Amino acid sequence: MASVNTAADETEEKESHDSLFDGELTCFQATKGYRFSADSVLLPHFMVVREKDRILDLGTGCGIIMLILLYRWGKRIRDIVGVEVQHDLVSLAKKNLQANAFEGGGRIVEGDIKNLASHVAPESFDTIVCNPPFYGHGSGRQSINDEARFARHQILATLDDFLFASTLAVRNKGAVYFIYPAGQIGVFISLLGKHRLELKRLQFVYSYPQTINNARLVLIECSKNGGVGARVLAPLYIYSKKNGAYTEEMQKFYKKNIWPEC
Q1: Residue 168 burial (C-beta neighbours within 10 Å; 0-12, 13-18, 19+)
Q2: CATH number for the 14-252 domain, one of 3.40.50.150, 3.40.50.2000, 3.30.450.20, 1.10.10.60?
Q3: Could you give phi then psi for residue 99, rounded to 5 degrees?
Q4: Dihedral of CA 75/66/255/50: which sign?
Q5: pTM > 0.85
Q6: Sign of CA dihedral 139, 140, 144, 148
Q7: CB contact at 8 A, 43 and 156
């Protein structure tokens, strides 16, 4: 006679239990929905986290960027808030904060970033971080899973919406961090002036040093009403060679808290 799945069994099938930093950070995520990738590991390590920072994560998903920031620099962070519109991802993000005992340092708000003023006070954050959907509506490979499609494609909100929300929430001279496809950097930069954001740092991300291909991603730091002047950092390579291991720099991003500033 076939056994009947319990509710716990069904939850287990829908979620995977993953970890980072030699198992010191745990993360539940959907098995068939949106799953975080190296983008979400690169971005928090590109950020500069200052003492008593108030951080807002726009489109937090399962909360992975919040988790990494709290794990690495939780003692510095005064408050961190993640905003997410998809209910199932909100539930996962809350579960992940609880699983890592981070409820005291972070919280999740269920809401649409296009209506952000209903959820957070204007200019109430020092820093904004965002790993937005990369693809325009109808472009790129479309997932049959709604959760993954909404997270990867600009269906529920556009890049312009995320930049507008960033400017609304960040204080004057505050920092705004994004990761975006390198091939679309022109579109990104063209929108900055509209939202009173000044480009401050760029770092292009390549697959490996010997590649003849273009950069895949770009890490971006902007400042609200900041002064003119930007730095282009040395390229970041994910792999040491084609089909090779992670570079030393990339490996560092996955190590447990051994850094003096942690």
Answers
A1: buried
A2: 3.40.50.150
A3: -65, -30
A4: negative
A5: yes
A6: negative
A7: no
Question: Would you call 16 helix, strand, or coil by DSSP?
Answer: strand
245 Cβ neighbours under 8 A, 6+ residues apart:
239, 251
What is the biggest distance separating any 2 CA atoms in the chain, rounded to whole angstroms? Answer: 72
- Tokens 């494609």 locate to 153
C-alpha to C-alpha distances, 262 to 66, 69, 127, 256, nearest whole angstrom = 15, 10, 18, 10
User: DSSP labels for 61-87?
Assistant: TTSHHHHHHHHHHTTTEEEEEEEE--H
Q: Could you tell me the CA-to-CA distances from 249 to 115, 243, 254 in Å, in that order?
A: 38, 17, 9
How long a stretch of residues is the chain?
262
Among residues 162, 79, 160, which one has the least CA distance to residue 124?
A: 79
Q: Tens of pLDDT along 159-185? A: 999 999 999 999 999 999 999 999 999
Summarised one tens digit per residue, pLDDT across range 2-24 is: 434 444 454 456 889 999 999 99
Sign of CA dihedral 56, 60, 65, 68: positive
